[in-house]
Amino acid sequence: LLLAPAVGLYVLAVDPRIWRRPRLVVGCVVALLGTMALVFLELPLRAGPFRAALVYGRPETWDGFWYVVLAEQFRGSLVAPFTDIPAKIAALVDRTVAGFGPLAVLLPIGLVATIQIRPRYALLSGVSLAITVFFAASYVNADIGRYYLVPAFIAWTWLAMLAAAIASAVRIGDARVDGGGSDRPGTETTGRASVLRPTTWVAVALAIVLLIPTGLAIGGRWTRVDRSHDRAAALWLDRALDAMAPDAVVVSWWSYSTPLWYAQHVEGRRPDITIIDDRTRLDQDLG
């Protein structure tokens, strides 16, 4: 949903006359609605005739179906999006500097270069980034940091566009000096040998410069994000299941219920215990 406005504007920018092709537009709408219907049809089926071991909400009913589809549980998580704008901008700047280091100052210039080189892509990427960071700054539920992955990727493409603009400027300047150019960009032909032109060297040098900050920080970042040896959840689960008496009733909440459900429904462990979660408490009318 966050990316839909940007995609729509991009399509209109690429093909402004698309609205004059009603069959195509209707076909796209039908394909969209049909795909959504097939995806969400799983909800009433797995809550009804093909009942799953664990069902969220009551999607087999009309009200319960829309409760899940429209994410009613999370209504109110978008808090005051149009207030405290300066603080949100400052937090975004801090996040950008932390992620890009010295390259952060080049991002606005990269956007300008993208607008000049690929204006339609600038529209797609710029609107996508703006809407996503605007939403993430005011959304107070879940691990919101992952929402910034797409903006971070977009920012890297802007830096690449800036490097391309610089390399292109060198090529134009070089062509003005020698009064012409070769058949293939980036090379000049002398007899049978091809010699790399300055444009190519500039492009390679800029690529290296862009990657140096990431290369220098990769060791520390790898250590921070590597969870391949983190078995804390598995160890907790083993100890918790061993400690629970036969036919025990466990009153839990989401962060602990999910590994317990996984052990019970996926691994087939401890089918004798009953897990009462703050969600299933509502779905099973437990008060």
Summarize the structure.
62% of the residues lie in helices and 5% in strands. About 5% of the residues have low confidence.
Provide an overview of this structure:
With 287 residues, the protein is mainly alpha-helical. Helix content is 62%, strand content 5%. It contains 12 helices and 4 strands. The protein has helices at 4-14, 22-40, 42-47, 62-69, 85-100, 107-117, 119-138, 149-178, 198-225, 232-243, 254-266, 280-283; strands at residues 187-190, 193-196, 249-251, 274-276. The strands form 2 sheets. Strands 1-2 form a two-stranded antiparallel ribbon. The protein has a two-stranded parallel sheet with strand order 3-4. A hairpin with a 2-residue loop joins β1 and β2 (193-196). The longest helix is centred in the middle third of the chain and has 30 residues, at 149-178. It starts with a helix and ends with a helix. Residues 181-193 have low confidence and may be disordered.
Descriptive tags:
287 residues; two-stranded antiparallel ribbon; two-stranded parallel sheet; 12 helices; 4 strands
